[in-house]
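Changelog note: in this version the structure field was regenerated for every chain. One regenerated record is shown below for reference.
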Amino acid sequence: MTKQISNLLACAVYVGFVVAGSVNAGLAAERVNYSGKYLAQGRKTASGGKIDSTLEVVQTEDSIEITRMEYGSKTTNQYPLNGSEGDYKSPSGVPGKCKAQLKDKYLVLESVVTTRPQPNGPPVRIHTKERWQFSSDSKTLTVKSDVDFPDAPRDVSSIEGGSVSGTQKYARVENP
């Protein structure tokens, strides 16, 4: 009887490991890969001309590298995917910190830079959070951006809008 219970327990443990391994393998298979080249859709200048804006993305297990090309200026940042912070440079050249996180079907990118809008004024942090999501066919990337100013006084924040939000769609033009 004891040998039967031992065999039953061993079988249950084995089945548990197989099920747990299958779930982990399924989760790894569902991980979205954002690697590719993207072209902004529908962006225009004040005079009606088209803005040439591209993203080039290289995703690895540990990080996601994003090269943004806008108005002839190129900026490359590497966002760690392990929860740590990486070095960041804004399109205008201001240094800061960044990180990334894969959440379900989204990629969340965060960056913080500190700038001094007025030469004698206090420093102000600018926090940018982007949420990336693919269309069901993975041909369109939607980037929702939120920018806030954590150090700004409430009265100034309300004048500035407190936060600035926007959404930009990109067409995937190259897939690795």
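Spot check on this record: Residues 1-29 have pLDDT under 50 and may be disordered. The radius of gyration is 22 Å.
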